[in-house]
Each structure stands twice: as structure tokens, then as C-alpha cells.
Amino acid sequence: MTFYKKFSPFYNLALFYFVVSFILRIVLFFHPITQTSFTILESLKIFSLGLISDFFVFIVASVFLWLYLIFISNSKYSKPSGYIILGFFAIVFIYTASGKSIFDEYGGALPRIVLIFIGIKMALFALLLFLPKLRDKIRFWLFAFVIFLYVLLILQNGLSEYFFWNEFGVKYNFIAVNYLIYTNEVIGNIMQSYPVIPLFSVLFLVTGIVTYFILKHSKNYISDIPTLSEKIKITVIYLGLFLISIIAIPTLSKTENSKNVFVNELQSNGLYKFYLAFQNNKLDYFKFYKTLPNKEAYTILKQQFPDISGQNTFRNIMGDSLENHKNVVLITIESYSAEFMKSYGNQQNITPFLDSLAQKSLQFTNLYAAGNRTVRGLEAVTLCLPPTAGESVVKREDNKNKFSTGAIFKQKGYNVKFMYGGDAFFDNMQDFYSGNGYQIVDKSSFSPEEITFSNVWGVCDEDMYNKAIKVMNTEAKENKPFFNHIMTVSNHRPFTYPNNKIDIPGDIKSRDGGVKYTDYALRKFFEMAKKQPWFKNTVFVIVADHCASSAGKTELPLDKYRIPGFIYRPNEKPAKFSKLMSQIDLMPTLFGLLHFNYESKFFGQDVFKGDYKPRAFIATYQDLGLIKDNVLTILSPKQQVKQFSLTLDSKSGISPEFQIDYNEKCLKTQRKDLINETISFYQTASDMLKYKKYQK
């Protein structure tokens, strides 16, 4: 038999992987979320370099296939070697089951997983050893299972990449790594968002068909098992390609350098992107980003905060009149882009209540979310500091006893609570908020009769608001003001909510429906709140946690960070504040409106103070941006800095203060002052957290 046919399991699976990757790129290339056009050269780059990257990634991913195939033989079952090997498996199995193995030092599920793996290996080896007449059949079905598993994983990965793109407009990133941690919520979300049974039925059917054809052209490997010398040749060739691939994969990733982010994302390999996201979930600012001498960074920061001294942000905030200890209800709305509202150009009438409430409120028309995930929004309104590199502080181990908005309210004698309709364990919210002095009211606090509708994320917003009213009625009797932070859940895929509430049925799983139901539930909440004796003495702060989508042609597309935000004060005159501001400024501005006197470490500022200099922070987990003077400055790992000039792309029929679309073009001559200011903000914030200067 020709030697190259010994590689048939590899090249047949590789061909299938390339076909799936090519089809996936075509689908994503023309996907509605891919909001750009491509030149011929960009298209060639996407598909040619993408295919080469796929080849090398497949080589690395097939390491388990190589290990499996290389140990297929008949000689190991001869006497006495077969019995010796089986005895070895038995000893290892007993050692692992003893509870005193090296695996037990790591704890968790690892010892159980290793025990199951060794047990299966031992059982299969015993079958092949003691049933020599059935050995060929057993080996064939084991071989078929391995091929089936590879085909299934290739198809499953293709589907996962598609659905991830459908949600975020990128290949796997840090969010995908997080999803592996919260399997209950993620699997539940998938189950409720997509037709899982038909989808997986088709998936397994296609997997079976493809496996049949690959087996048909690859079974020669087990019908004529390679000799020892052939296995050595196979190993030398494979390991050579493996070593080349380890060098080639990161080298090819450096060619993902287009100014159009979609080109880079489509060119990239999803599996390698997942690996990078897993590796980079913790980013040390001082190791990966451009820095200044620390003293200089704090000196530049002092230009923003003239009253600070030393290497921190500590300063005294003085109110301009008597403190007003009104109740405060902060509502952070899940995934609520500014573009959903009528004032920002939406014509679908999906936010009728918020549109009307905004006209009665202090409205911040030029407000930007700090990040593109809920934990970033919660961090922004709770800690009021820029979004530092890597994971949000909410999810870090060192996330307790921070200087927070809750801490300020507690100093003023408030009851402080965080309310969430889901399980507060998700995204580490319970650990973060309880560790910073908040009482938690989440789904576990609900009695069965308080839940009329729920999905994987938790109870519907109406149920959460009903519960909140009950809690606040109880608090109002304690003769203490209350601060309650409510996080909504209904405007999240699968976008299911009670039927017969709005004119979009809850079971069609529509984003517009999720937005409109969220608006409807808010209206119901205010209708109930107005009937309570504490209502007129309460300030309501309403803001989105982040936008519905973060996908765009650039690293940080401005329209994907613009969010609605306003403060409603019963019997107060409405107003608009149209200067540029950040999500981290919202609560310090509220403290200013309440005339609070307090010692502050916040990076966020009262935007009505005379020394406020308009700017906004927007970021992913690794790209850190500052908007100022119509320039977007972005700091990225490997000490990279980019700057874009921002030119308004006005849309007719929208007032100037509500325009959200900007053209971002590379700045021909860099603004060194803005680069240093951006570094100053993010470096000092990272320094404050790293050296525990941001404790309360």
C-alpha cells in the first residue's frame, strides 16, 4: 500500500475541516452584522491567509488523533506484555481512586475526570485483550467513534462560531472563555434561543453521514496497521509539521493588521482566537501597555483633578448647599443602545415610555458606556473608574472593600441593596456586591407565587419590579433613606417575556420585543411607584449597562457605545446636558445634585462642576479608549497606540445633540498630549487597583 495512504485519517479530516471553515467564512462574509464592504485584495487576504491558518491550526488540533493512531497495534496484546499493560492500568486506576493521588491536590472535578478516563481505557484494553476474535470489530468501532468525535467537534465549532458572530460580530474572544464558566446560563440561553432539538438532530445526522464517507476512505489504516518503521516516519513528519505550526500560527496572526476589523476577524482562526482569549484574560497594564513614569502619569491626571495631591485620586468634594438625603433608585438596563430611542432616530416606537420619561428628566444626550458587557457597566456605575485591561473588577479576586457608590450612600446612613432578577452568582455579581457592603436581592429571594414568568436569565422585569416595590415599601418604614441598584434581565437573548403585554409576542424571540417589553415593564414600575408615599422623595437614575451590539469596522465603533441615561426627579424641571461624558460620571453627578459632601477617590466627575473637562472612556477587555477633542485614542497590548479623528456623520431628522454616527479615520499626525492623557488615566487606574489604593 502506498505510504501516503497511511495519512488518510489526517488528510480526509483536514479536507472536511477546510470545507467547513471556507463555508463559515462565506456565511460570515455576507452576514448582516458584517457592516462593511471588502476590496478584492482584502477578500483574497481573508480566504487565502485564513486557509493557511486553518491548516496549521488543524495540525495542532489533530495531536490527539496522532496519539490515538500511533498506539494502535496487535503486538501489545501478546503475552505477557498485554497482561503487564493491563496490570499497569489497574494500578493507576486504584491509585487515582484512592483519594490521595496527585490529581486530588488540584481538587474540583479533575480526579473524577481522570478516574473515568483511566477506567474507560482499562475496560477497552481488557476487551481487546480477552476477546481476540472480536478485536478487529471492536477496533473498527473505536476508530469510527474517534472519527465521529472529530467530525462532530468540527461541525459544532463551526456552528458555535456562527452563533457567536451572530451575537457579537467577532470570532471567539474573552466572552467565549467566560461562557465556559457559566455553563448553566449559557446552555439554558442556547436552549431557549434556538431550535435546539432540530438543530442537533441535523448536526448528528450530518456528522454520521460525513463520518461514513471519511471511514470509507480511511479504514485502510486499521485494516493494514502501519509497521513500527512506518509509525516512526508518520511521527517524524507529524511532529515536524507540529513544530512548524506552533511557529506559523502566531506569525500568521500578526498579518491580521487591517484597519478594517472585520477583515482581521474573518481572516483569523476561531480556535486560535479562543486560545488567545484564554491566555489573555488577565492583562497586566504595566507589562503589556505603553506607560509613563508613574509620577508623570499622576501629574497629568492632576490636570483633570486640580485638587488631588500625591499618587492617588483622593480629594474632598464639597456640596454647594445643604445635603439632600433623598432615596435613590438606580436602574441599569440590559443591552439598551441609544439608537433604540426615538430621539436618537429610531422610528419603530419600541421605547414609548422611556421616550416620554426622558422629556421629564435631566437627560444626558452624549453619554458613552465604558464597555460592552454587563460587568463593565456595573463596574462603571459602582466604582466610577475607567475600564482597566483584562477582566472587569467585578470578576476579579481582589474585588472587595472598594471605594464605591454604595460606600458613599452607607456613609450617609442609607440602606444599600443590589437587586437582580437572575442568580447573582452569574458574572460574580453576588461576590462583588456583597463584598462591597450591598445586601443582595436576587431570584433566590423570590417566593414561588412572586414569579409569573422566568427564563434562563431569571424572572421577567415585571416580577423584579414588583419585588422591588415590596422591598422599598418595607425600607420606607425604617425611617432611613434607601439606595437600591436594580439590574434588569429581560432585554437579553432569548428575548422571551410574558405574552399579551405588548404588540410583539414574547415567544417569537425578537430583539425589538425584548426592548419594548423592557420599556413596558419600566412603565408599570413607575405606575406602581407613583402610588407609594416614598415616591416624591426619590430620585430615579436610569442608564443602560452597554449597547446591544459591539460589532463594527473599527476596534471601538463609537455608535456601539452610545447609551441613554437620565435622572428623573419628581416635580423637578427637565433639562438636557449635551456635553461628552462617561458612564463613570453618572453617580458623581448625582451626588452633586444631592449636594453631598464626601471624600472621593472616583475617577468619575460631577459634570456640572466648572472644572469638568469633557471626555469619555470606552473599552473592550484589551483595547482601552479615550474620546476627547474629536479624537479617539486607543491603547492596545504590545505598547500599541492608535488615534482616529472623529467626524460626525449627520443623519437628517435628528437633533444635533442626539447624533451618534461618526466616521473614524486614522489621525495623520498623532496628538501626543492626548496619548499621554489616555495613558495617564488608564495607568493610574491600574496602579490604584494593583497597589490597593482604591479601597474604601
Q: What does this entry look like structurally?
A:
The protein is of the alpha/beta class. Helix content is 45%, strand content 12%. It contains 23 helices and 19 strands. The strands form five sheets. Strands 6-5-9-2-10-11-3-12 form an eight-stranded mixed sheet. A hairpin with a 2-residue loop joins strand 7 and strand 8. The radius of gyration is 29 Å and the shape is globular. The mean pLDDT is 92.
List the helices and strands and how they pair.
Elements (H helix, E strand, L loop, with lengths): L7 H22 L10 H22 L1 H8 L10 H17 L12 H21 L4 H34 L5 H8 L1 H11 L2 H21 L3 H4 L4 H26 L7 H7 L2 H10 L5 H4 L5 H9 L12 E3 L9 E7 L18 H7 L3 E3 L2 E2 L5 H10 L21 H7 L3 E6 L8 H6 L4 E3 L12 E2 L2 E2 L1 H16 L5 E6 L23 H19 L8 E7 L20 E4 L6 E3 L3 E2 L3 H8 L4 E3 L15 E4 L4 E5 L2 E6 L3 E9 L13 E5 L5 H19 L6
Parallel strand pairs: 2-9, 2-10, 3-12, 4-13, 5-6, 5-9
Antiparallel strand pairs: 1-14, 3-11, 7-8, 10-11, 15-16, 16-17, 17-18, 18-19
